[in-house]
């Protein structure tokens, strides 16, 4: 068990090492690596020690997430899913459900969270998955798409509708009626195990419904997404750090027109912009984590802001890094090529750029009123 941030980072260095590009090309993270990361508690590091977790603050978990993100966005994506599953159980589940499910997630079982459906992407109020009570059981029928980590997951946290309200239910992957279909060749985070999930009359104990029936779908989803946004935002800090390091290294060694690239002022400007992006993303994530750790009422907006700023900077910063390396960074298996593809997806998930802008604009209007 990694018992502090430095140990956790060292374990990530040890297990991920320089294998991220090979995993990206293969589209697969070795099972043994994921199990070891999971059993060390660092895929959901904010889970309290009483449940076998590391009990990290949001700030330390953020720093760990950025470190993982700087090495491998696919591992970071699996970490985001696991952390979001654990957070959903913590927020929505009963004490008995905490006791039952959280120790599984800190002992090496892997989890994924399904909100999105074919007709419910940005608009999750269109969710159609049915979670129907039937005596001591519930029966679940529906379809989820693009669920990160579902290909690897033992447990699926599935959101849906239940008797006119919302609900989230834990479904073991081997439940009869559950079919997991891998997304073929995603643009980025290619080893993150994205999968669609078809659920046809899967029957589960009613105890697997987190917090019971009659919840607000929108509040339940927002609680889970808040963790995902924070995690993605810190992951983007890691992408920017990897891009800045690669671009600076290359600019100091490659020569054109008789001098190093770094001595050409237009390239120096690219490096300055990358540094500014990395610093801005770090500061906005630190601010949001401070809000998490002090349980501030402004945490939701601070988290959306962090996700919006970090993902935009990561997407633009990765493009800048590819520009600095040019052909040297354009091949499959190069860190900046991978970052370029991975970072673009960060502008889509956990509330797209446009959805974040709408939330932030509403906040601005409310403040002005
Ligand atoms: P749409 O909702 O169809 O949006 C298309 C475009 O329209 C976007 O640019 C969007 O911003 C814009 N748009 C939509 N509504 C508005 C509006 N009101 N105003 C302005 N613009 C608007 N889902 C899960 O449940 N679990 C996961 O783990 C998960 N992981 C994912 C990982 C990856 C790599 C990807 C690509 C997706 C993942 N998703 C996951 C799904 C993801 O949450 C959705 O893709 C996302 O919510 C956007 O939905 P959509 O793709 O259907 O796009």
Question: What portion of residues belong to β-strands?
Answer: 15-25%
Overall radius of gyration: 21 Å
Strand order of the largest sheet: 2-3-7-6
Which ligands appear in the coordinates? flavin-adenine dinucleotide
Find the count of extended strands (DSSP E, 2+ residues).
9
- Taking pLDDT < 50 over at least 5 consecutive residues as the criterion, the unreliable ranges are none
Shape: globular
Molecular structure report:
By secondary structure, the protein is α+β, with helices and mostly antiparallel strands. It has eleven helices and nine strands. The strands form three sheets. It has a four-stranded antiparallel sheet with strand order 2-3-7-6, with no helix packed on it. β2 (130-134) and β3 (137-147) form a beta hairpin. α7 (217-253) runs parallel beside α9 (299-325). It starts with a helix and ends with a helix. It binds flavin-adenine dinucleotide (FAD). Flavin-adenine dinucleotide is lined by residues 81, 113-116, 121-122, 144, 146-148, 186, 189, 194, 345, 348-349, 352, 354-355, 358.
């Amino acid at each position: 068990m990694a018992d502090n941030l430095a140990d956790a980072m060292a374990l990530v260095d040890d297990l991920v090492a320089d294998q991220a590009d090979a995993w990206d090309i293969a589209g697969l993270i070795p099972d043994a690596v994921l199990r070891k990361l999971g059993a060390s508690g660092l895929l959901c590091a904010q889970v309290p020690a009483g449940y076998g977790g590391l009990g990290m603050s949001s700030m330390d978990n953020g720093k760990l997430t950025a470190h993982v993100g700087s090495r491998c966005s696919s591992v970071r994506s699996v970490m985001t899913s696991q952390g979001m599953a654990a957070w959903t159980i913590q927020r929505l589940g009963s004490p008995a459900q905490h006791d039952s499910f959280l120790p599984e997630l800190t002992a090496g079982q892997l989890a994924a969270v399904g909100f999105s459906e074919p007709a419910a992407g940005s608009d999750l109020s269109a969710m159609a998955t049915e979670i129907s009570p039937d005596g001591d059981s519930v029966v679940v029928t529906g379809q989820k798409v693009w669920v990160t980590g579902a290909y690897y997951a033992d447990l699926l946290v599935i959101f849906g509708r239940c008797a006119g309200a919302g609900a989230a239910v834990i479904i073991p992957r081997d439940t009869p009626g559950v079919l997991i279909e891998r997304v073929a060749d995603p643009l980025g985070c290619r080893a993150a195990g994205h999968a669609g999930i078809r659920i046809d009359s899967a029957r589960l104990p009613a105890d697997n419904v987190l917090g019971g029936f009659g919840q607000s779908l929108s509040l339940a989803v927002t609680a889970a997404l808040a963790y995902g946004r924070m995690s993605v935002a810190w992951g983007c800090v890691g992408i920017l750090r990897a891009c800045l390091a690669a671009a600076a290294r290359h600019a100091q060694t490659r020569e054109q027109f008789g001098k190093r690239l770094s001595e050409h002022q237009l390239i120096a400007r690219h490096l300055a912009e990358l540094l500014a992006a990395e610093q801005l993303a770090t500061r906005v994530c630190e601010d949001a984590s401070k809000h998490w750790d002090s349980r501030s009422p402004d945490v939701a907006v601070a988290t959306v802001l962090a996700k919006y700023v970090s993902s935009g900077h990561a997407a633009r910063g990765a493009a800048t890094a590819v520009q600095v390396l040019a052909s040297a960074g354009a091949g499959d298996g190069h860190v900046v090529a991978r970052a370029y593809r991975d970072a673009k997806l960060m502008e889509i998930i956990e509330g797209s750029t446009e959805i974040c802008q709408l939330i932030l604009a509403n906040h601005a209007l409310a403040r002005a009123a």
